[in-house]
């Protein structure tokens, strides 16, 4: 290979690397944190920025069910913002918002951020997913915030696979099932009923004085009397 050809090849390689570097910088750290592709929709209005916005449908094209809006919302202002609604212009499908805690509003704190989508995070569920969005299309999404107002952008519609598998409708729907499983602190209340041995009553004894220890001793003496 001549020197001129080698110089041309090196220059082309340098251009490719520089474009890749710029794309990575433009995506920001948040795209890497979300584990999604950096070419997703982003926009900003005032002190609010929406990044990595996508509409995620069911994994299979022929599957019916809800879809979700996934995005990262940043608030660079001095006041907290409440996400009051997410709307899809041109669609009659409502979007149900749920905070990460399972109740209450979705609040974007001052100087902070909120992630929509994924297990354990706030969610924006499109109840009629297939009617509202088609894979491969660009869907207009409006984020309505208490202080900033409307933040509009066009988000790509993608299935819940590959990069987006962990942010799809199935991940959001699994969250309510986790909350009941976190409430089985009820066994302690059920334990006294199934504690003929009296051992669960023993931890309660320090809180109730000497009464709890006396009750087991009476029942124990009664049981001995019956045996004899």
TrEMBL record:
Q: Disordered: where is this region?
A: 168-228
Task: Report biased composition (Low complexity) as residue ranges.
Answer: 191-206, 214-228
Q: Does the keyword Lipoprotein apply?
A: yes
Please verify whether the record's keywords include Signal: yes
Q: Which UniProt keywords apply?
A: Lipoprotein, Signal
Signal peptide bounds: 1-26
Annotated PROSITE patterns: PROKAR_LIPOPROTEIN (PS51257)
For this entry, the protein name equals Lipoprotein
């Amino acid at each position: 290979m001549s020197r001129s050809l080698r110089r041309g090849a090196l220059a082309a390689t340098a251009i490719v690397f520089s474009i890749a570097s710029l794309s990575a910088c433009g995506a920001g750290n948040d795209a890497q944190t979300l584990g999604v592709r950096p070419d997703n929709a982003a926009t900003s209005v005032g002190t609010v920025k929406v990044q990595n916005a996508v509409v995620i449908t069911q994994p299979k094209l022929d599957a019916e069910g809800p879809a979700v809006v996934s995005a990262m919302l940043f608030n660079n202002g001095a006041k907290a913002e409440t996400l009051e609604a997410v709307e899809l212009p041109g669609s009659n499908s409502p979007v149900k918002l749920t905070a990460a805690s399972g109740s209450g509003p979705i609040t974007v704190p001052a100087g902070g951020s909120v992630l929509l989508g994924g297990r354990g995070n706030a969610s924006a569920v499109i109840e009629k997913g297939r009617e509202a969005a088609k894979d491969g299309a660009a869907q207009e999404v409006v984020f309505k915030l208490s202080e900033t107002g409307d933040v509009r952008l066009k988000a790509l519609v993608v299935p819940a696979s590959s990069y987006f598998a962990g942010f799809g409708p199935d991940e959001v729907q699994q969250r309510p099932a986790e909350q009941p499983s976190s409430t089985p602190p009820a066994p302690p209340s059920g334990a006294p009923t199934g504690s003929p041995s009296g051992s669960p009553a023993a931890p309660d004894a320090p809180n109730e004085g000497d009464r709890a220890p006396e009750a087991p001793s009476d029942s124990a003496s009664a049981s001995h009397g019956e045996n004899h």
